[in-house]
């Protein structure tokens, strides 16, 4: 007699089917987990471990926290950390720019189709090309200072003044990358309940009130995503612009951790010190990201 026939056989078959249903999600995500562990987490742990070893004559020797102490005694790394703080302060601006532009496109301002295509154009340009273009525009004898001189404003050393250069590099980065955030915001608008906007218009709400009380609460998760991805981009994807526009100058004022890491690894041949700087950069990104998500969640609940 077949074991699968009868009530007991049916129960065992259903039990096995339920077991496979419970295991199916784990089987499906297993390849992705293995890739992340093998290509991300394992190298990360190796890098952290390597940061506690020495460079040069002490290559491979355990040095404890010596690399981290050396980092915080280095004025260039201190400047890089100060610039990270500046990026965190400017981050809301970098998120607000694509958010507001996406809002105007969603509300169908005149010419929104044209702007929709033009706004994304900078995102397809190479950072090297963008940096070269703005080097010409922002040169001391370049077009921007020529225009300012025509209205009686003295020339500004946009990329040679330590107090100005970092703001210019960040501004160029925001201009070159806001197209990706714009696309994400437009995708978020597709999930927004249009009835809420219609009700707000009927009630006579101003554009500012619509943005604050309807759009922002409705796009909380989208805003969180753009905040995190923009922060990661600002901390890890500005090397091309820095290298082309300022090379870390003037006087090290535009150093960021990623540029400092490249200098230590590629030019100074100090991979252990570069690993320590990479570990600190990872911790900064983790802490700032978690704080941002916490603040945004709290803001979403309050709204």
Automatic annotation (TrEMBL):
Location (main, coarse): membrane
Coiled coil (UniProt feature): none
A Pfam family hit: BPD_transp_1
Subcellular location: Cell membrane
A single cellular component GO annotation: plasma membrane
GO terms of biological process kind: transmembrane transport
Domain ABC transmembrane type-1: 81-292
Lipid bilayer topology: Multi-pass membrane protein
CDD domains according to UniProt: TM_PBP2
UniProtKB keywords: Cell membrane, Membrane, Transmembrane, Transmembrane helix, Transport
Protein family per UniProt: Belongs to the binding-protein-dependent transport system permease family.
Name of this chain's protein: Sugar ABC transporter permease
Origin species: Jiangella rhizosphaerae
């Amino acid at each position: 007699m077949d074991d699968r026939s009868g009530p007991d056989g049916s129960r065992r078959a259903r039990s096995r089917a339920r077991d496979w249903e419970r295991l199916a999600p784990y089987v499906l995500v297993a390849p992705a987990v293995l890739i992340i562990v093998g290509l991300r987490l394992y190298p990360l742990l190796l890098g952290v471990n390597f940061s506690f070893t020495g460079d040069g004559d002490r290559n491979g020797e355990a040095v404890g926290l010596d690399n981290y102490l050396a980092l915080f005694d280095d004025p260039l790394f201190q400047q890089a950390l100060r610039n990270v703080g500046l990026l965190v302060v400017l981050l809301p601006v970098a998120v607000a720019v694509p958010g507001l532009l996406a809002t105007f496109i969603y509300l169908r301002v005149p010419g929104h189709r044209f702007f929709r295509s033009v706004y994304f154009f900078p995102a397809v340009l190479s950072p090297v090309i963008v940096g070269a273009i703005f080097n010409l525009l922002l040169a001391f004898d370049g077009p921007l200072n020529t225009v300012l001189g025509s209205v009686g404003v003295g020339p500004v050393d946009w990329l040679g003044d330590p107090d100005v250069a970092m703001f210019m590099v960040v501004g160029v980065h925001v201009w070159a990358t806001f197209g990706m955030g714009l696309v994400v915001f437009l995708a978020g608008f597709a999930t927004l309940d249009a009835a809420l906007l219609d009700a707000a218009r009927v009630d006579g709400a101003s554009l500012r009130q619509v943005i604050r009380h309807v759009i922002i609460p409705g796009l909380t998760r989208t805003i969180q995503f753009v905040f995190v991805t923009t922060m990661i981009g600002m901390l890890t994807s500005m090397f091309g612009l820095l290298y082309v526009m300022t090379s870390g100058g003037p006087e090290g004022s535009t150093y960021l951790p990623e540029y400092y890491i490249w200098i230590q690894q590629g030019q100074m041949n100090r991979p252990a010190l570069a690993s320590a700087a990479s570990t600190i950069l990872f911790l900064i990104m983790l802490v700032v990201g978690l704080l941002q998500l916490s603040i945004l969640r709290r803001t979403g609940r309050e709204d």
